[in-house]
Structure formats: C-alpha cells, structure tokens
C-alpha cells in the first residue's frame, strides 16, 4: 500500500469521509470488474455490479470504524469480501424469489401496528422470539425510531416493502433499482435494523 493510501485509511477509520470516498474510488474499478464477471448469466438481466456496489458502499460507510487495517491490500480485500457476500446473498434471494409472507400482510399497511409486528417477526432470528413488548404498540415506536437512525435507502426499502408491503417490482420502480438490488438492499437494511433493535435489549429473547 502506498504511503498516501495508508494515510487515507487511517483518516477514514477516524471518521474522515473525504478520505473514505477517495479510497472507494481507488478500489471501485477492480472490484466492479470482478463482480460483473462473477454474476451468473441467469441473473444478469436482474442484477449488475452497480447494484451490488451501491449496497456495499453503504455498508462500508457504516462499518469503517470496525475495519482492522492489516497492511497492504487490506482495505481492497475487505471491501471485495463484503461485495462478494452481497452478490451471493442477492443471487440466493433471486433464486428463492422471496416476498413478504402473505399471512403477515396487514389490511391497511402503513396505518396499522400489524405491519410493524410482522416486521419484528421477520427480524427474529432462529432461536429467538419477539418479546411481548415487540408485539404491541411499542413495536411501531421502536422501529420508527430505529429507521430514523438508518441510511435513507435502508429506511425507504423497509417502509415500502415491509411496512407498506408493496410488490417487489413496485418497490424497484419507486427506488429506480433492479429487483435484485432491492432484495439485497432489504437484507442489509434488516441486518442494520436488527442491530439497532437488539441494542435496546427488550425485543428479542432466546
């Protein structure tokens, strides 16, 4: 790693967004080329490298403070690994053709607490269950608060897909992205929302 690049990494970890943006510009071309080549032919009409990188770079901005700089090439390897994980998850979801579970759909989504309760149930990981508080009015308040702490695109995809319960194609059109990108964005938004709700310590029990 060149000395100026090493300095940018150091500054980025300390919260310098300009340095982080410059680093992303440096690693974007090789990662973009690698990803485009790895997308399966069956998915190329639904997903491209830009879709994957848009989501990946949101993650990079969120998690740069956790990055451990282990020397030459570490930042490139970190972002590449993140991007490839996103690609793998996106293709898995496209194969499964995931949609919100019909049984959890609310009659008046966006106006009823039912869609928020369904959201908490969706976020529950295997081996955990929502608490009584998460099943009541507290769910709406906590989720709305958490959404206010998330990147704009994360908030929007959850609002449209999970709370308003629009069809994936309508969400994709509204956000100007492919359906593959929406599935991937939603997965990462769920990860972040689960982290924020879990930090409250009163929504999920083992």
Written overview of the protein:
The chain has helices at about 5-15, 15-40, 50-65, 75-95, 115-125, 130-135, 140-145, 150-165, 170-175, 180-200; strands at about 130, 205. The protein folds into two domains: about 5-95, RNA polymerase sigma factor, region 2, helix turn helix motif (Rna Polymerase Sigma Factor, Chain: A, Orthogonal Bundle); about 100-205, Arc Repressor Mutant, subunit A (Orthogonal Bundle), CATH 1.10.10. It starts with a helix and ends with a strand. The protein is built from ten helices and two strands; from the N terminus they run αααααβαααααβ. Strands 1-2 form a two-stranded antiparallel sheet. The longest helix is centred in the middle third of the chain and has 23 residues, at about 75-95. The protein is mostly helical and about 210 residues long.
Tell me, what's the shape? globular
* Strands ordered across the widest β-sheet: 1-2
Average pLDDT taken over every residue: 82
**How many helical elements?**
10
Q: Radius of gyration from the CA trace? A: 18 Å
- CATH names the topology of the largest domain as Arc Repressor Mutant, subunit A
The arrangement of helices and strands along the chain is HHHHHEHHHHHE
* CATH H-level homologous superfamily name of the largest domain: Winged helix-like DNA-binding domain superfamily/Winged helix DNA-binding domain
Percent of residues in beta strands?
under 5%
Total number of β-strand segments?
A: 2
CATH architecture of the largest domain: Orthogonal Bundle
Low-confidence stretches: 98-111
Q: Considering DSSP H and I runs of 4 or more, what fraction of the residues is helical?
A: 55-70%
Structural class: mainly alpha
């Amino acid at each position: 790693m060149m000395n100026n690049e090493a300095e940018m990494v150091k500054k980025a970890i300390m919260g310098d967004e300009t340095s982080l943006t410059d680093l992303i510009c440096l690693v974007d071309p090789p990662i973009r080329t690698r990803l485009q080549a790895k997308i399966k032919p069956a998915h190329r009409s639904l997903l491209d490298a830009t879709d994957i990188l848009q989501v990946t770079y949101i993650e990079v901005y969120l998690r740069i403070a956790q990055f451990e700089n282990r020397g030459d090439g570490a930042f490139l390897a970190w972002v590449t690994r993140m991007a490839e994980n996103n690609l793998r998850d996106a293709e898995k979801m496209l194969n499964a053709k995931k949609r919100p579970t019909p049984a959890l759909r609310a009659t008046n989504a966006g106006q009823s607490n039912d869609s928020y309760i369904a959201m908490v149930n969706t976020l529950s990981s295997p081996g955990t269950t929502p608490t009584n508080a998460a099943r009541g009015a507290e769910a709406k308040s906590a989720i709305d608060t958490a959404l206010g702490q998330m990147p704009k695109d994360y908030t929007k995809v959850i609002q449209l897909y999970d709370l308003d319960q629009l069809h994936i194609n309508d969400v994709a059109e509204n956000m100007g992205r492919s359906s593959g990108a929406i599935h991937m964005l939603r997965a990462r938004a769920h990860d972040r929302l689960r982290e924020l709700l879990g930090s409250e310590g009163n929504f999920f029990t083992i």
